[in-house]
Amino acid sequence: MSKKDKGKRRKLVSLCVLSMVFFMMFSPVPSFIPSADAAFSSVSITDVKHTDLHPGDTRDVVLTVKNNGGRDARDIRLALEGTEIVSPVGPKVVQMNTLNSWCEKEVEIRVHVKEEAPNGVYSIPIICSWNEYYFDPIKGYITEPKGPIELGIYFNVIGKGVINIGDISTDPTDIRPGDEDVELRAFIENSGEAAAKDIEAILICGDKFKPSWSGTDRSYIGRLNSGEKGEAIFHIDIADNVESNTYSIPLQIRYKDTKGGEYEVMREISILVEPKPEFEIVSYYTEPAKISAGDKGVKLHVKVQNVGSEEAESVSVRITGEADVPFDYDVKSDYLGNLKRGEKGVGILQFDVDRDALPKTYPQGIEIRCTGDRDLGDDNVYVFDKQIQLEVTSSSSSSRFSVPGFEAGFALLLLFVVLLLRRKRVF
Fold first, then answer.
1. CATH 2.60.40.10 occupies which residues in the chain?
2. Which of 3, 65, 153, 291 has the fewest C-beta atoms lying within 10 Å of its C-beta?
3. CA–CA separation, 290 vs 1, rounded Å?
4. Which is the CATH superfamily of the domain at 163-273?
């Protein structure tokens, strides 16, 4: 190309440029001026689905990633950084090939919340980098690295400990009226989503059940993380007059969350009280009705009644030894057989009264012994200690003088008096 042609071309280009500038300045049609955002790409996270989590959760979370600029973004890289409370599960880097200008896409990640995480708002930092892709009229298509920049997503962790009762066991396995020092073991479980601490269980015993000794109605468990359990141990006495039934004993549980907040819940421990025979002495009397020192062969009639909740087998009544009782028993026990609930039986015992017995009332121990109803699986032997009062009213005529040889001396004195009287008559 000649110098003359080149000069003409330069003049033509200059003329075109001047014409465009003149047109833009004076044309009535408004010109398009790119905004600041349109001059570059800008990757951000505009939305997060499933932000409410609970301690112990492992959950899929959906992120909305958007290019808020006028230039395309390629090879987008999201690097997830975990924290002590909330951390990503699985791949720690999310890759996206292309995100055109003003467009958005959804990506899915999985996160895990620490088991005993306290309530609060927690974030996961995300380091984002990408390549900006655009066309330059002079240079053509350009790929320019952008970032890294730090983004963040936030989660609201909501959870609390939930305390419940699990398995319950007793020792002995079969609980019956009158049993003492019964051991109750109850597993306390934290089925909630957060840790609980300073856990204390208090058994509300009531009238039918009493603590075996001081403090045995309380049990301290301490701290339980989510899903853990601990054992509470109690010792109680069962009242004698408890009917055979299943009873629910209230259990008060106090605890705190990890921030010190105090809670109180009421639960129940269910126990089965098995049937048991129980005896009372309905009445008693002696033959003769009034007994005196020196009496022989006195019969004692003792009427007993089964006031328990099951049949009693092999019932017997026997005398228990008393150190200060002036009775010598020839018949110390009597067999009554089986007595059903509410049925009565009479035992007959026999004794002699000591000749030197003082006139007063003497306490006499009575033992009632039986076995449980074997048809109900009760092979226990039961012993009931009772007491009656036996009164010695006065000394017998034959024992008012208890000096040894007194009777022979008295007879000789009487014979001497008779002989003396006869002698006086003769004279």
1. 37-157, 163-273, 279-399
2. 3
3. 162
4. Immunoglobulins (2.60.40.10)
Q: Which residues, in sequence order, are CB contacts of 349 under 8 Å at separation 6+?
A: 299, 300, 302, 317, 319, 329, 331, 332, 333, 334
Question: Which residue type, as a one-letter code, is found at position 299?
Answer: K
Q: What is the arithmetic mean of pLDDT over 304-317? A: 95
Closest by CA position to 268, among listed 254, 255, 252, 250: 250
Q: Which residues contact 96 (CB under 8 A, 6 or more apart)?
A: 65, 75, 76, 77, 78, 105, 107
pLDDT in tens, 406-420: 455 556 666 666 666
Cα distance between residue 252 and residue 90, in whole Å: 43
> What is residue 172's predicted lDDT score, i.e. its pLDDT?
92
Q: Does the domain formed by 37-157 have CATH 1.10.10.10? A: no
Q: What percent of the chain has pLDDT over 70?
A: 83
Alpha-carbon gap, residue 424 to 247, rounded angstroms: 93
DSSP single-letter state for residue 91: -
Q: State which fold the 279-399 domain adopts.
A: Immunoglobulin-like (2.60.40)
